[in-house]
Amino acid sequence: MRLHRLDITAFGPFGTTQSVDFDALSAAGLFLLHGPTGAGKTSVLDAVCYALYGAVPGARQSGQGLTLRSDHAAPGTRTEIRLDLTVAGRRLEITRQPPWERPKKRGTGTTTDKAQTWLREYDATAGVWKDLSRSHQESGEEITQLLGMSREQFCQVVLLPQGDFARFLRADAEARGKLLGRLFDTRRFAEVERRLAERRRATEAEVRDGDAALLADAHRMQQAAGDLLPPLPDLAPGDPGLADAVLGWAAVARSTARERLTIAHCARTAAESARAAAERALDDIRERARLQRRFAEARERAAQLEERADAHREDQARMERSRKAEAVAPALDLRESAETEHRRAAAEEARTRALLPETFADAGAAGLAAAARRAAEELGGLESARRAERRLDGITAERADLDREERADEAVLRDAEDWLAEWEETRAGLQARIDAAQEDATRAEQLAVQREPAAKRLEAARERDRLARDADAAQGRALASRERALEAHEHWLDLKEQRLTGIAAELAAALVDGEPCAVCGATDHPAPARKVAGHVDREAEERALAAHRHAEEEHAEDERRLGVVREALAAATAEAGDVPTGLLAAQAEELERRYAAARDGASRLHAAQEELRRAGHEREQRAAAGQEAALRGAARTSRRDTLERERAALEEELARARGDAVSVAARSAQLERRAALLTEAADAVRAAEDAAQRLKEADARLADAAYRARFDTPQAAAAALLDDVAHRELQRRLDAWQQEQAAVRAMLAEADTAAAAQQPPADPAAAERTAEATARRLQEAVSSLDAADRRRAELDRLSARATASVRRLAPLREEYDRVARLASLTAGTSADNERRMRLESYVLAARLEQVAAAASVRLQRMSSGRYTLVHSDDRSGRGRSGLGLHVVDAWTGRERDTATLSGGETFFASLALALGLADVVTDEAGGVRLDTLFIDEGFGSLDDETLDEVLDVLDSLRERDRSVGIVSHVADLRRRIHAQLEIVKGRTGSAVRQRGAG
Questions:
Q1: Burial of 749 (0-12, 13-18, 19+ CB in 10 A)
Q2: Measured between alpha carbons, how far is residue 861 from residues 539, 853, 950 in Å?
Q3: Taking a C-beta distance cutoff of 8 angstroms, is the pair 93, 83 a contact?
Q4: Is the pLDDT of residue 62 over 60?
Q5: Torsion, Cα of 147, 148, 151, 153 (10° steps)
Q6: Coil, helix or strand at residue 640
Q7: What is the DSSP letter of 663?
Q8: Tell me, what DSSP letter sits at residue 186?
Q9: What distance separates the 2 farthest-apart alpha carbons in the chain?
Q10: For residue 943, how many other CB atoms are within 10 A of its CB?
């Protein structure tokens, strides 16, 4: 993995966009990342980690990404990290934007935008970037797969935190195990330990459950056997001999149960015989008691019949009178119907006579009918008068319509006269509006011509002001480059003079004994000149000369740019003049305002012309409407005279026809009502006379029928007649008497009943008690038999299940023994595991041994061959072994704990350990090359000689085409490492500066 470029915007202490060119820094192989405390050195490393994994290292990761935003950033600037890198042979660019709480576009307050991620790949063939993904998850999975390591591994391997590895050197085995477990992902081995432990617990539980089930079956057998057998042996799940003891006890229980079942069979047979005899005796006694009760009941019912004999004879006589009265019933119904009809007809006659005048009170049916015919004839003569009355109503309605039309025409004439009186004033106002709009249109055309020159002059004034500022800045840069050129020229001259002063030593360096000197020609060189401290050689002079020439070129370029800016400033000043930009802007704004007002007035021209046209058209319409109203008034006067003559003739005709009535219709209604009442009264008189005749005939028939049925009067016949309900009730009582009398006689005539009555009284209660006693004894015998049979069946079932359980537990117990041995071995608790080392610790110990071997290669160089790191699997105290780390001191030949190292020794030992760990983790991650590494702090604890050794080791990493970034405050490193990335902090945020980068 090689980093190319990093762009940071509004992240951490960086308020604006800052760029880091890692290609330029990596060209030197070793570069320094320095700056004051709090400037943001670690934030650069955090930005790299965030770009790759979407999170910053360790404890600095908090919240949902909102805390990553710089407090120095402008409200509208979004936090963004863009990283350009090559990994696994692929050139990628990943851009991440954390969640951003920005101001709302509308209204007040803020809103939170979601995080964004873009992943692109550079296509070298096409020379373009191609989008791969915009998904957080897909981009993260792609980067993690290519790097082959998690965020924690990356932070330990690429961003080497020296403090963590110093603690790692002094940590105990448990702490080392946690760190190595995260780096090498030994979770699968811990999972094996966990799975074996779970399997051991599961098989142990299954074995105990099987033994518990076996004991439960044994207790169920003991419960089923009851008190027949001695109690079970005192055994617990897992005890030896449990299965044999349970199976032996079960065999004895089954044998005893079968003996008890045979005894119960014999007892049930004897009880069944006694029960049958008692049932037969009970049946005989119950039958005799029933017959005796039946005979006594028949005697009692016969006595009751004798008591009700008189009432029965009265019912028979009443039934006989009712049958005779049924012959008179039709005559009774006919007489009642005739009487009802006569009353109704008499009431109707009285009602209709009451509606007639008193002159018709004593008139008969013929007189009333004649009066009705005379009224109908008079009614027929009023039809012509009705038509005249309807025409008179039509004339009245037509005259009302003429009056309404006259009032409407008068209103039209008044409205037209009023409107026409104001016409000249209206026309003059509209014409004035048209003239004003035409003047505004002319003014707008004149102002439009002035707008473009004014806008160009304002733009030129603004360009003039901008160029004036650029000219001042360019002049400042030119002065600064002139000073730098003079300083470079003086520096070059100084170095040249120093070289000329020490040229003898430079020439003496090339002298060889026996060969002539290039200056004097002598072959003997007794006292050649020596180089003194600070000697200036040819290369230093040439570098100073190149710097001088470069400074001169920069000065010339700045002077050229200053001339270009001044020429542009002169052109802009010539076009804009000396008028201030603010005044030109105010003039342009006033011109725009006047132009807008003129255009607004001109836009009203068409509307005013259209309104004048509509007003002229309305004037013509109102004049025509007045003329039409005058013509309609003349026609109405002629029509009103014609209607008046016709109305007078019709009123004279109607006065003759209606007589004393209000109208012809009222007279017609009077005649119609009189004819109807007379006709109705005549019909009612005739109906009353007919009903009286029919009532007289019905009375004669009823008297004859009562005489024939031997009743003294018709009223006696009516009293003897029964309705349907009374007849059915009387017949029911007569039938019930006969049925009861027949039943009593039959019961008294039964031979069995009479014979039972001659015997002593029966005692069913005693026989029932005897039968119940035998039934209880039989039930007890059956229950005993059922219990014995269930006991035998339950013991057989439980014995079979216990035998099956014993067979099933055998292979399960063998599996438990095997799994328990493996689980104890991997957990480090087995006696076979002498060092009490867990499986995960064993794997981590192998990894730690590899890390120690890789670290020792660099540690020997850093310590001048003195120290070597070795892995130790000795136990520390009561803890487990496998993750010990010692240092071998070549000066003493002794092996001692890493905690005994001094501060500086601890630093370069932890540095070597970190580099070795990086190599091992890289190989573990699939061999992905890590071409860019960062080392954080710790160099201040080294002396000059050790620092040189450490830097030589770091510089040797370039042999593997690596670049190493050192994060440090040590001032001496700034002189030793030319490629530098400086973080400068200020009130507006930190900034990035690169120096000495190729």
A1: exposed
A2: 32, 13, 8
A3: yes
A4: no
A5: -110
A6: helix
A7: S
A8: T
A9: 204
A10: 9
Residue 82 CB neighbours (<10 A): 20
Q: What is the mean pLDDT of the chain?
A: 78
Count of C-beta atoms within a 10 Å radius of residue 504: 14
- Helix 162-170 × helix 173-184 angle, to 10°: 140
Q: Which has the higher per-residue pLDDT, 101 or 916?
A: 101
Quote the DSSP letter at residue 69. B
The owner of tokens 């599996």 is: 815
Single-letter amino acid, residue 38: G
For every residue of 199-236, DSSP letters joined together read HHHHHHHHHHHHHHHHHHHHHHHHHHHTTSSPPPP---
Helix (H) or strand (E) holding 33: strand 30-34
Give the span between the Cα atoms of 841 and 828, in whole angstroms.
Answer: 10
Question: Residue 31: which H helix or E strand, with range?
Answer: strand 30-34
Report the interhelical angle of 187-225 vs 764-827 (nearest 10°).
160
- Over residues 909-927, mean pLDDT: 69
Is the confidence at residue 684, as pLDDT, over 80? no
User: Which of 231-245, 327-341, 561-575 shows the lowest per-residue confidence on average (mean pLDDT)?
Assistant: 231-245
Residue found by looking up tokens 């020596």 in the block = 530
Q: What's the token pair of residue 377?
A: 């004839």
CA distances from 475 to 478, 480, 483, 549, 789 (A): 5, 9, 12, 20, 123
Calpha distance 422→418 (Å, rounded): 7
DSSP characters over 538-605: HHHHHHHHHHHHHHHHHHHHHHHHHHHHHHHHHHHHHHHTTS-HHHHHHHHHHHHHHHHHHHHHHTTH
- State the pLDDT at residue 96: 93
Q: CA 574 to CA 586: how far, in whole Å?
A: 20
Q: 170 or 70: which carries more pLDDT confidence?
A: 70
C-beta neighbour count of 24 within 10 angstroms: 17
Task: Tell me: pLDDT of 801 over 80.
Answer: yes
Encode pLDDT of 494-541 as tens digits: 888 777 777 766 666 667 676 777 666 666 666 676 666 677 777 888
Q: State the pairing for strand pair 867-872/963-967.
A: unpaired
Tell me which of 69-73, 80-84, 244-248 is least confident. Answer: 244-248
| Alpha-carbon distance values, 144 to 54, 60, 188 (Å) | 11, 21, 19
Helix, strand or coil for residue 985? coil
What mean pLDDT is predicted for residues 297-326? Answer: 79
CA distance 594 to 602: 12
Rg (CA), the chain: 68
Q: Is 885 exposed, middle or buried (0-12, 13-18, 19+ CB in 10 A)?
A: buried
How far apart are alpha carbons 240 and 207 in whole angstroms? 13
Query: CB–CB of 948/908 below 8 Å?
Result: no
Q: In terms of Cα–Cα distance, which of 995, 932, 985, 713 is closest to 45? A: 932
868/871 Cα distance (integer angstroms): 10
In 3D space, the residue among 857, 818, 823 whose CA is nearest the CA of residue 838 turns out to be 823
983 pairs with which residues across the strands? Answer: 992
Greater model confidence, 940 or 496: 496
The residues facing 34 across adjacent strands are: 982
Q: Model-level pTM? A: 0.40
The per-residue pLDDT for 63 is 47
Helix H or strand E encompassing 42: helix 41-53
**Cα–Cα distance for residue pair 905/908, rounded to 1 Å:** 6
pLDDT digits (tens, 9 = 90+) for 394-417: 878 878 887 888 788 778 778 877
**pLDDT by residue (tens digit) across 177-209?**
766 766 666 777 777 878 878 888 887 777 778
Predicted local distance difference test score (pLDDT) of residue 246: 78
Q: Which of 72-86, 234-248, 251-265 has the highest mean pLDDT?
A: 72-86
The C-alpha atoms of residue 931 and residue 938 are separated, in whole angstroms, by 22
